Amino acid sequence: MLTRQRVGSQKLYSKAGLETSSANAKSAQAAARSAEVQLSFDYIKSPIDGRAGIVNVFPGSLVQASNVVTTATSSTATSSVGSMVTITQLNPINVQFVIPEKDIPIMLENQLDWEAMTVKVNFGDSGKRSYEGKVLVIDNQVDPSIAAVRVKAQIPNEDKTLLPGQFAHASLVANTLKDALSIPSQSVVINPRGKLVYVVDKDGKAVSKPIKVVYEYQGTTVVTGIEGGDRVVVEGKQNLRPGSKVREAKVTPTATPAPAQAAATPTTPSATDKK
Question: 0.70 cut: is pTM over it?
Answer without folding.
Answer: no
